[in-house]
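Quick one: structure tokens for this chain, please?
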Amino acid sequence: MSGPRTGRVGALLACCLGLAGLAEAGGCRELEPRAAEDAGPSTTSSSASSSGQGTSSGGSSSGQPDATTSSSSSSSSSGAPPPPFDGGPVLAAGDHVVGPNDRPGTLTVPTGYTGEPMPLFLLLHGTGQTAASVETFLKLKPATEAKGAFLLRATAKTNATTYTAWNATDSCCMYTTEPDDSTYLAGLVAQAQSTVAVDPKRIYVIGHSSGGFMAYRMACDHADLVAGVVSLAGANYDDAALCRPSEPVHVLQIHGDADTTVAYGGGSFYWYLLPYAYPGAKQTVADWAGYNGCGTTATAGATLELVADTTDRETTISAHAGCRPGGAAELWTMRGVGHTPGIADPLTTLGSPAFDPTFATQMTEWLLARPKP
């Protein structure tokens, strides 16, 4: 083994062994799974700290939620799910702590909530980020506020390199059986459902990077709960047979074709010198077209403006038609865009233009137009 890949292996070993020299040089920054053929440094959120925990607004750097108002939370992540909202006290607009005491989440209640059912969006961050930093990046709060929807966020546990990461698919990003993030997040949604009036036909998941992988895991495991997902620079299981959704789910993959961290065309991740493959964006959508009973051919559609500072509508749409009720399989390809738009790589100063101000609105509108039947 020689050349750039050797450097990647050295950086991983340095992180595992705690070698300070490489850590100070940036070798232990966000160790997001990346394409095997890519030797360049990965991007990371500038909001994340060197420990991978970040700092929540109104909180500490321990990765706890940035909520300012507390609501009831269960004492553990196990046990029977809480009962649905029964018309009890109506929470005021703003952030509230929900979920297990040892791993709470942040539930944002929109202005104008009176106890009537509203949609719920679960937002999942990428490796090395937190519930607070992903909101800074994607700015989903204003969009859900404008649409009259709840926003639920949580922070993943740390992996072997002390970076926050979701235990999602066979390719990403813990490579162990624990923690059971699928059960944890479903329980967090159930806690939100017991705290506020959530429309059961409009529960959605949006995730970036490892959060995008986790969004697919939620759709695979909890298709009866999740109406739709948006995966930004994530991917489905490498082995499509490992995903067995019980019913159709609306799926939208958004991916930059210049992504060198989670390659648009698929690739292999290197983590402790072991390869972990993941499918490309087109294959991921094709897999979901199969689960959802859609046609096998994707048809090109309109173009979109998702990224600021571009001279044209850089995003192309392709979608599979003929899906079963409750299912969709669509791909938005951002031409010339990398892994984390708007955030430059600290070692190379390379990065993609920031998202267009309408990006979060376009994502939420796509999902809201697709409830469960």
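Residues 1-78, 345-350 have pLDDT under 50 and may be disordered.
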